[in-house]
Design goal:
2 domains; five-stranded mixed β-sheet; 8 helices; globular
């Protein structure tokens, strides 16, 4: 039975801090529902989150917040990163580490945007999934948090839509460019999958705000 009757304190604080990223009280309420669901719901889908609340609107309202309304996800993400800079324990540091990797998120439907068949080397099988490239910031004290992510699109899909196809190497370089553009300090790291000459040379070509090479 649904049991959530109020938002956790941490969610209430987040809604106050990010209030101006949304238009009006309904959007802020659905933002709070989504955050609460990501923390507490057993199933992190829109329907699964909606079912967790004792008193809520139709699930289509939360779905529209995530897919149709025009709030700026990049502005929200930057606000989150800026908030980390106010805390000495999560603030960027020259001895920080910027870790890049990719991950497959399993799905069960083939009609979901950008899903496809991918080989999972960890489970040694093909699966229907989204393929995300992401990077996290790791502070010297061990605390860490995500910075940004990109979703991979297969070449045949890009050809159908007329988009430019970008493989994992290009996308990895895009994430490196993002960190350099934002002057995020730290050492880049990744596993052997991303250790191509193109990625290494691209990193070495970047300089920080003091003119030193990022590699």
């Amino acid at each position: 039975m649904p049991g959530i009757i109020e938002f956790p304190t941490i969610v209430q604080q987040a809604v106050l801090g990010f209030a101006d990223c949304f238009y009006g009280k309904p959007q802020r309420r659905h933002f709070a529902e989504y955050l609460t669901g990501l923390i507490l719901a057993e199933r992190k889908t829109v329907a699964g989150i909606n079912r967790e609340f004792a008193d809520t609107t139709d699930q289509s309202c939360l779905n529209r917040l995530l897919t149709e309304t025009d709030w700026d996800v990049h502005a929200l993400n930057q606000r989150r990163i800026d908030a980390h800079q106010q805390d000495p324990s999560t603030k960027f540091h020259k001895r920080g580490v910027i870790a890049i990797d990719n991950v497959l998120i399993d799905h069960h439907g083939k009609l979901i945007e950008d899903v496809g068949w991918f080989w999972d080397h960890a489970e040694q099988k093909n699966k229907i999934a989204h393929d995300y490239l992401f990077f996290n910031y790791v502070c010297p004290n061990g605390k860490h948090y995500p910075l940004e992510f990109l979703r991979f699109r297969k070449q045949e899909q890009c050809e159908e839509t007329g988009e430019e196809f970008r493989n994992h190497t290009k996308m990895c370089c895009d994430l490196i460019d993002y960190a350099c553009l934002k002057n995020i300090p730290g050492t880049f790291t990744w596993d052997s999958y991303f250790s191509s000459a193109e990625v290494l040379n691209h990193t070495h070509s970047q300089k920080n705000e003091f003119g030193y090479y990022r590699a």
